[in-house]
Automatic annotation (TrEMBL):
Organism: Cellulomonas cellasea DSM 20118
One Pfam family linked to the record: Pkinase
Keyword Secreted among record annotations: no
Binding-site residues for ATP, renumbered to this chain: 25
Statement: the UniProt record of this protein carries the keyword Protein biosynthesis: no
Designated name of the protein: non-specific serine/threonine protein kinase
Amino acid sequence: MLGLGGFADVFLYEQDMPRRSVAVKVLLAGSLDDDLRVRFQTEANLMAQLSHHPSIVTIFHADIAVDGRPYLVMEYCSGPALAERYRVERISVAEALRIGVRLGSAVETAHRAGILHRDIKPANVLTTDFGWPALTDFGIAATTGAGAGVAIGMSIPWSPPELLAERPTGDARSDVYSLAATVYSLLAGRTPFEVPGGANGAADLVARIERAPVPPTGRQDVPASLDAVLARAMSRSPAGRHPSAVALARSLQQVEAELGFAVTPLDLTDEARVPAAGTGRDVGGAGEDEDGDDRTRLRPVVSIDPSGPRPAPTPRRSLRAGEDDGTRLRPVTSVSPDPAPAGTVAHRLRAAAGP
């Protein structure tokens, strides 16, 4: 078993055809109802739209076992989640910046598809076999039917003030806050409003998030410019934050250039190739919008509602002959619609369920 959750467990399986290790998320039997099954399926469809991104966990297949439990077959990320690292090791500034830029492009990709994550935190960032961060668990609060309060209760340290309000509200800038809070944790070795040796219960953290300024990371090798970027992204008011995930990522690129690090490319589609922020070099990243700002033009945000229409796929711009859009593609995985043969994940789940 790879992980336990309040609504689903994750198992490691060795798939026979094709041969590979996969992670299988199975909804818990005690959480089953018709509405939740439909929501789980909708979640799979939403994540499948984003699986082409190198920093978003790939969905290979989704199905329902004979005992009625829905499950997702996903890319197995062999590296540790960031939650397993940030408290026990000193993550370099260079690595934290790389992770921030790559996750920024992943979050931006989701936003452009009309999908808000709403639970970005170190535990939801896995590490691929190649050492890349991979964002997972999109829209979990929306698919559980338990309401925002349950998910926020588990993720208070990285939640923005507007999601902690009596009537939670949020938009793309809420994800910007949580992304910055995650990068902060990698650098500081603690959550942003955690006081070492002090009272750090849920009520204490909520009070600081709602009222206190963002403290500096406290690391001598973190430049003031990076502390300032994170403080802006974590402004109490959404209006004070970076307007989009790509805007935050470009600010992190500027810090990379300032420190003399290689500038991490932004993995975004449907964008002109322009110089990275703070450099004169083309790194295949995304630039400002045509009107000169970094605001993300969102599709209507997907409401994970079983009675509502399914979202349309994201249209892609056609490339001219010889044109390179800088996108890093993963090999396409073909999933057969035929009944599961013996040895596949579906077969094993059905066999485990019994007659």
